[in-house]
Amino acid sequence: MPDRVDGAPPDLGQRAGAVLAYRGGVALRLEPMTDEQYLRYRERAEGEYAQNIAASGAMPLPDAQEKARQDYRNLLPDGLATEGHRLWTAYADADEVGMLWLHLEQRSDGLHAFGYDFEVREELRRRGYGRAMIEAAERVCRELGVVAIGLSVFGFNTGARALYEQMGFEVTAVRMTKRL
Fold this sequence. Notes:
The chain is of the alpha+beta class. It contains four helices and six strands, in the order ββααβββαβα. It has helices spanning 35-55, 61-75, 129-144, 158-166, and strands at 19-23, 26-32, 85-92, 95-107, 110-120, 146-151. It has a six-stranded mixed sheet, covered by helices on one side. It is globular, with a radius of gyration of 17 Å. The model is unreliable at 1-15 (pLDDT under 50).
């Protein structure tokens, strides 16, 4: 998708529940994930999550694979219909560029959101889609009255960590391991 230089966001077609974002010349929309997209997502997401857990040094791959299966089973027992969870596909024009998964939870100080997964297709990274997706997520959260958005990122994922810091996320905890 070419960057726009005239400052006006393009007119994007959208399904019900879509959220538009326009940041730094990049136009993007989040649409609720379809059942077909969700099945594709789940097929690969558990495996990628397990690989990341193992790559972080937290546990060996077989244990990480079991943890990934359990985490997804526990977090999304009803798939897209799981209460409090929202999953979107991100589009630039008609092209799928990534996905976003937020969990909403009421706490004593208000509604909180937690980003369980946030991804831009690897070949499309560093083009502004990540920033636009975060902007769209923030827009949704503001409209819902969310008071804070949290997320976790693996220590080795320096690109994502840098993006989150640039977008105003702050480190609240650090888990460290020393391999022997």
